[in-house]
Amino acid sequence: MSEVRIFKASLEDDDETDQIIIRGVLDQECLKYIKLDWYQREQGFSNNHTNKIVAAFISGNKIEDITVGMRGARMRTSKDGTYTLLDKCYCINGGQRLWSAACAIKERPDLKIRLGIKVYTNTNEQFENDLFCKMGTSQVKIGPSILLRNRRKNSRASAMLLAICKDPVFAMKDRIAWDQRKTRQDLMQGFTFARVVGALHCHKGGALRSSVPYDLLDGLDSLVERIGEEAVTGNIIRFFDGIDKCWTIRQLSGDRSEQRLHLTLPFLLTVGRLFSAYSEFWDGTARNDFYLPDKYLRRLKGLTLNDYIMPRAKVPRDAFYEILRKRLQLNPIFEQEAAE
């Protein structure tokens, strides 16, 4: 049976949630019975960091406790302070420590490890996900892309952004990372993608220019509520199609030697903000539907980004905004307003 045993266990009041929790030492034979659910990181840990934790286990150094949720309340207790958890247990915080402990035992089968555990009972997926995002971890901070991804069941915008990444007509299909780190094929982090979407629609107001994950997501949710998922999805697809036509996205291999200045956050935020500001790129007075007319596409296509966008930016962002505006032959906003 996949029972999880906790030695020297006791009940405590939890400062995080005001619940009563179980705290003790995990029986190392039960490591394999603690599951990881979808909200956890999938590719988020470096080998170097894992090796350090393995070395700490082998050396007998103290390792931070893991946090676990049991989806139920069935358990057995014994007089020696052992608690046996009978319902399914999911790791909320400490997945890398669990993995490293298993690696340490595999390397040294006779090794006796001491790993503390803190258990919430009667949990569910939503509680665990919320606590995971709230706690982060002292080992590796949770990336903002994961925070946005993990709201997909409660946020229309989160679900929409994830769905777009699987759309065959999207230039960035399967090239956006929603985990802790990018893989070789990924061209952009999910949080970067969300910020670009916000910049493109920032004329709609709200928190669409925010760099705080949940504030940005609230702004995107409001945007979806106002103009609809279909409109937002179409705008995103047409925006990245324009970038693809000017500098290519679909032909990128993901090799680190490739120059991808057109996919850097400063460039895309600047372009998105410029497009958002001018009615020339939007259909109708409500400015809900984005389009990139051919004449602007031709003017943008000849721009050599090496002259403006570098790791150590040669041109300040506001100055680059003006360079783009003049390149596209757009009147300054204040002149337009005066004419009107």
What does this entry look like structurally?
This protein has 340 residues and is α/β, with parallel strands linked by helices. The chain folds into 2 domains: 4-135, no CATH class; 144-339, no CATH class. It contains 12 helices and 12 strands. It has an 8-stranded mixed beta sheet with strand order 3-7-4-8-2-1-6-5. Strands 9-10 form a two-stranded parallel sheet. It has a two-stranded antiparallel sheet with strand order 11-12. The termini are far apart.
- Main sheet characteristics: 8 strands, mixed
Helix and strand element order: EEEHEEEEHEHHHEEHHHHEEHHH
Widest sheet: strand ordering: 3-7-4-8-2-1-6-5
Average pLDDT: 87
Structural class: alpha/beta
Low-confidence runs of at least 5 consecutive residues: 335-340
Radius of gyration: 25 Å
